[in-house]
Description:
Elements: E1 2-9, E2 15-17, H1 21-35, H2 37-45, E3 48-50, E4 53-55, E5 58-60, E6 69-71, E7 76-78, E8 83-90, H3 97-104, E9 108-112, E10 117-127, E11 136-141, E12 148-149, E13 158-159, H4 167-180, E14 195-209, E15 217-229, H5 232-241, E16 254-256
Antiparallel strand pairs: 1-8, 1-10, 2-7, 3-4, 5-8, 6-7, 9-10, 11-15, 11-16, 12-13, 14-15
Helix pairs in contact: 1-2, 4-5
Amino acid sequence: MRFKITLNRTGRQRMLPMDYQYYLSAWIYKVIGKADPEFSAFLHAKGYSSGNKKFKLFCYSPLNFGRPTLWKEKALFEIHTDQLFLSVSFHLAEAAEKFIIGLFNNQQVYVGDQFNGLDLVVGQVERLPEAELKGTMNYRAISPVVISLKEETEKYAQYLSPAHENYTDLLRQNLWNKYDSIPVVATLPEDLNFLFKLKGESKSKLVTIKPNTPEQSKVRGFVFDFSLTCPAEIHQLILATGIGEKNSMGFGWVRGIEGD
């Protein structure tokens, strides 16, 4: 279930840190927490589980703010529009539509750090139409897709590009684990058709999480176009929760595109 949120700029500040994903994630948790503290705590601390894997089952897009001025040396966007747009998605029952719209309507948010950021207020929340699901669908990754591989002998995980030989298997396993974490769903057979095809070249993006804090870390993902052949349930899951890892931090937001 996807929603488009219209955000109106209320302050005079125009500078936005380039690494703003974490601030959006924190705001979404805060909004959910106001309505249901127990559910918010569950998402933050535990999430849904499949084996030892934990999932939050929501995702959000990058902010759409037109054509900003990029101050690369300061890692800042200068925003020139008074209206910004954000899409969010959740794996929720149909009955939750009005609940989500009411949850976000008229909410105020400051997106940024102690030095630079935007004061925003939600002006409108609308549900986006459901995509027509097909066996093979074409997608564009709007935010970086994260797939990692951690060897037992290595201290840190390796972030993989879609050209890596293990990428398809790891992507498939991530999606199957995510699906299995949802309560009361039919188990998908392991031998179901799954075919990932990269279209064109991928572009690497390094994102800082919790910038300027002791918990600061960097995550590498890749943006690219791709086609995916898989069960309709998995396509639906991708559109509701994102693809790959760290979706609740804004990674793996995709949209359907026309293609062969």
